[in-house]
Amino acid sequence: MRLIYRLGLLPALGAGLFSLFASAAEVNKKPKKKPEESKYKFYQMLDSERGTYRFDSEGNPIYPDQKKKSAKTANKKKNPRAAAASIAAAQRQALAQKQYKDREKLREQVDAFLSAADDHSDRKEYEQAISYYDKVLALSPGEQTAAGLRDQVKQRWAGELHQEGVSLHESGRLSEAAAKLDEALSLEPDNIEIKEYQAKVSQELQRQVDKKISDANAEGVRLYAGGRIKEAIAVWEKALEADPSNMKLKENIRTARADLKARQ
Questions:
Q1: Residue 124: its pLDDT value, please?
Q2: How many domains does the chain have?
Q3: What is the pTM of this model?
Q4: Fewer CB atoms inside 10 A, N or C side of the chain?
C-alpha cells in the first residue's frame, strides 16, 4: 500500500474501482425482458429447432392456439365446398326466417278477419260475417274454424229467413213469403223443413195466380162480348204477364186484334 502511495498509483486505482462499481450499477439498472419478449424468444428458438415459423406478416409472434385458428380460417378459404356449404346454410336460414315472418303475418290477418266476422255475426249482419269468413278461407283454405263458423252463421241466417217466410205466408203475402224461403234455401239447400214449406207456399201461390188469370180471362171475355175490344185486349195482356205461357190468353188476344182490325 505504501508502495502504491509512493509510486503515485492510488488515484488511478481509485478511478478504476469507481469505473467498476459504475459498470455493475449500470448492469443492475438494465431493464428486464418483458414476459412477452421472453415468450417470443422461446417460440422463436423452438420454431428454429423444428424448422417452422410462427410469425405474422409484421413480425409479431403467432402462438399455438392462434395458429390453429388461422389454419382453420385458411382451410375454409381454400376449400370451395366448405364455402359453398356455408353460403347454402345461410340462405336456408334466411329463407326459414322469411317463411316464419310470412306465417306470422298470415296468422295476424286471419285473426283480424275472424274477429271482424264474429262482430258482424253478433250484430246479426250475416252477409258481412260470411264475407269475412270467406276471406279467411281464401287466405288459409284449411282453416277449419272459419269453415265451421261460416256454416253456423248460414244455418242461423237461414233459420231466421224461414221464420220470416212463415210469418208472411200466414199474413197472406205469398209472393214475399216465397222470396224469403228461396233465400233461406240458397243458404241451406239440404234443409228438408224449409224445402217442404217452400213447396207448400209455391202451390198456394200458383193456385192464387191461376185464379187471377182465370178471373182476368173471364173479365176480358165479358168486355169483348160487350164490344169493348181494346179494353179486353188490355186485360188479357196484363194477365199474360203473370203467366207468359198461357195459350188461352194468347189465343184470345190474337182473335180480338184480328176482329178489331177487320172493323176498322
A1: 92
A2: 2
A3: 0.55
A4: C
